[in-house]
Write a sequence for this structure.
């Protein structure tokens, strides 16, 4: 089991940037698929970006490609999501998730992840 804590959310204006952090405790994230999801009120939980278990693949939702960048520190205990050129439609609660049994074809399926953080609110005003 790994505990995840997100931070870095806030209220910004359209065009601004934010960097979210997901800190793991209990163990490193080696061997875990790690992903950022987001959920706006009334919407389904949406995959944003993530790494495969081996770290060999990095994925982005089409809606955030070329604006968001996921990265991890060398100690593999923190994952970051750099969000640039934010838009009002990026407003949501952002969750970090990790799973050590997630197969590559199911990376976007939130049900495959069994470790979740509490979420951090990102609000982008127009």
């Amino acid at each position: 089991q790994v505990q995840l804590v997100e931070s870095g959310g806030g209220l910004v204006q359209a065009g601004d940037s934010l960097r979210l952090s997901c800190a793991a405790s209990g163990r490193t994230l080696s061997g875990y698929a790690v992903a950022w999801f987001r959920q706006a009120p009334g919407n389904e939980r949406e995959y944003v970006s993530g790494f495969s278990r081996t770290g060999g693949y990095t994925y982005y939702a089409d809606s955030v490609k070329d604006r968001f960048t996921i990265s991890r520190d060398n100690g593999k205990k923190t994952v970051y999501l750099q969000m640039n050129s934010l838009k009002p439609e990026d407003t949501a609660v952002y969750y970090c998730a990790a799973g050590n049994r997630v197969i590559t074809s199911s990376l976007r399926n939130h049900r495959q992840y069994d470790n979740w953080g509490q979420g951090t609110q990102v609000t982008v005003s127009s």
Notes: DSSP finds no helices and eleven strands in the chain. The two ends are 40 Å apart (CA to CA).
